Amino acid sequence: ILMLLGKQWFHDRKLIGPTFHFSILYQFAVVLSEKTEILTKCLEKKIKDNSGKAVDIFPFINNATLDIICGNVAYF
């Protein structure tokens, strides 16, 4: 869309416009906040259970990312 001009730009802009409406972006933020809270609680528990040892956060971040994506796809 950045490289388009004229009618094609206008057409494509109208197609993606609703995606960036404030109410939809607000729902994205709500899902992001909820999933981030869950991630934080899971990491806190894992750190507590590991007694100060190193924690592999990759699986937690991976799951949180998928939860956020799936949670936001539900709004389309």
Order of helices and strands: HHH
Average pLDDT across residues?
Answer: 85
Described by strand count, sense and barrel closure, the largest sheet is: none
The helix count comes to 3
* β-strand amount: under 5%
What general form does the structure show? elongated
> How big is the Rg?
19 Å
- Terminal-residue CA separation: 21 Å
Q: Let me know the number of strands.
A: 0
By secondary-structure content and strand pairing, the structural class works out as: mainly alpha
Uncertain runs: none
Can you give the helix content as a percent range? over 70%
Plain-language structure description:
Belongs to the cytochrome P450 family. Its cofactor is heme. May be involved in the metabolism of insect hormones and in the breakdown of synthetic insecticides. With 76 residues, the protein is mostly helical. The protein has a domain at 22-70. It contains three helices and no strands. It has helices spanning 6-16, 22-49, 58-73. α2 runs antiparallel to α3 (58-73). It is elongated. The mean pLDDT is 85.
